Amino acid sequence: MSKVPSVVVLDHGSGNVRSVVRALEAAGAHVDLTADRPRALEADGLVVPGVGAYAATIAQVRAVGGHRVIEQRLAGGRPVMGICVGLQIMFESGNEHGERSEGLGQWPGEVTRLQADIVPHMGWNSIEAGEGSRLFDGIEDERFYFVHSYAARTWEMERIGPIAAPVVTWAQHGGDRFIAAVENGALTATQFHPEKSGAAGARLLRNWLAGLGADRSGAHA
Predict the structure, then answer these.
(1) Is 67 a catalytic residue?
(2) Which of 92, 142, 183, 195 is labelled catalytic?
(3) Which terminus of the chain is less hemmed in, N or C, by CB atoms within 10 Å?
(4) Among this protein's residues, is 220 annotated catalytic?
(5) Helix, strand, coil % over all residues of the chain, rounded to 5
(6) What are the φ and ψ backbone dihedral angles of 15, each rounded to 5 degrees?
């Protein structure tokens, strides 16, 4: 990419976003940490980070109008990337401690607690990259850093007409299989933290940045 891509990291109050900013800058992007709507709409890419509880994150995103920015970007085929809880809120809902919170509904399904003896799932883990993944190009056999107690554990979205089917990447913890990443046209998200995943995470971010100039119109279902 000849032009330095511009990326906005949505500043909605989530912790530890500075590491995301630094990782994106190291990967070759010009990065702004802001909730300013025009800047978030105009950037080549938008990153939605999230740590902690599903309900708190979705409330924070809505409070700064992030849900509208995400919807507008995706309607125009403009790339958006969610990280950790930023992936989870793209689903219809999250269920924590018996309390259901409505998500952004970009994908059907519910985020629930991992069914494993040891929770949270914390540390390095391998992934099962989806067929045709661009995000994991060259790093299909690498390990990535996870920190979470909840996950999307089923994929319910079917292919619609001529629209390319989403590429879904999986991982396992304690025998429980869950979604590690999704590539769905302009919308990409990872359950793990690429900014904490060393060289593999840096390569993944470069792969994402390399696709910001691609024509993705009509690719998002």
Answers:
(1) no
(2) 195
(3) N
(4) no
(5) 25, 30, 45
(6) -75, 160
